[in-house]
Amino acid sequence: MKTNFDVERLSRILVFSGFLEQTDEGGYRHSKFSRAYQPEKPGLGHLFVACFDHVLTPFHNFDEYLSRRGQLHEPDDSLRCPMTSYHNQDGVSPWAIMGQNPDRMRDFQLAMDVIDEASTAVGTFDFRLLRNSPDEEAAGRVQLVDVGGGHGTVLANIIAAYSDSLRYETCVLQDRPDVIELSKKNSALPDAVKRMNHDFFTEQPVKGAKAYFMRLIIHDWPDATCVKILTHLAAAMAPDSRLLICDAVLPPRVSEDSFFIAVVDQAVMGIAGKERTVEGFSYLLSEAGLELVRVWRLSRDAQKVGACIEGRLKRQSSSL
């Protein structure tokens, strides 16, 4: 955005803070901190901007949000949450509000890329288990559907790490149309991966995939909404399909390692989201006709970077 403000007046104070550096000639240049805000590539600056725009700002009028509700209650409706209240758009989802400003949506997706680099999904699950048999390969069975996968950076990293088992041609990236359009500029994701516009509140169009993958999606939504999302996925799953939820998992006891997750839990409250324990995930899966079969964790910093919750369709009990 172009303004008529005297840039030098701002630059002086930014030199004192270390954000900018002053040259011997009296000019100003980037420091290692300001470079993080350059728009060309993902950096911590995008994460800070996203946190301010979409996390801190909606809490400025948290008291007004509570007054509108008429009762003291934690946010449990994504269409009527602190973020929708702040923008005076109750009834509109936070992601639709974000999509009204393409630049902010782009910055948010770049911020997610930063998170993906800091806490990789590679290693949280053995994706070799999704290798197609010769018959499945001949039938073109989809191996992995990344639901709400953003730019596709995570999907690209997973396929690259398990290139002996996963093929680009049998993997699918799904997200909102505006996000899928942005993904076309992501050079890390080959064109061979199918990009698909999809609203996960509607019927899942890819049936019988070997796995449906959701990373940092479930924590954005309240319980009732999560059950709706998971129910659509369950309806598309084959008996041997897996549901993989890659997310933070709150430990049963508070510890120093769980501090970051607790902070994020407060942050996503602004959009009526929440972090969950293993029991919390098990409840969601059960309500959607699924069952939790395993919690996959990285060997290092498991509490900090999260885990992969594996769900399957509930087994039908046989009656005599």
Structure description:
It is a single chain. This protein is an alpha/beta fold. The chain has three domains: 31 residues, no CATH class; 73 residues, no CATH class; 194 residues, Rossmann fold (3-Layer(aba) Sandwich), CATH 3.40.50. It contains 13 helices and eleven strands. Strands 5-4-3-6-7-11-10 form a seven-stranded mixed sheet. α2 crosses α6. The longest helix is centred in the middle third of the chain and has 17 residues.
Short description, anyone?
Helices cover 37% and strands 15% of the residues. With 320 residues, it is α/β, with parallel strands linked by helices.
Mean model confidence by pLDDT: 87
CATH architecture of the largest domain: 3-Layer(aba) Sandwich
How would you name the CATH homologous superfamily of the largest domain?
Vaccinia Virus protein VP39
The CATH topology annotation of the largest domain reads as Rossmann fold
The helix/strand series, from N terminus to C terminus, equals: HEEHHHHHHEHEHEEHEEHEHEHE
Q: Proportion of β residues? A: 15-25%
SS-derived structural category: alpha/beta
Share of helix among residues? Answer: 25-40%
Strand order of the largest sheet: 5-4-3-6-7-11-10
Count every beta strand, where a strand is a DSSP E run of 2 or more residues.
Answer: 11
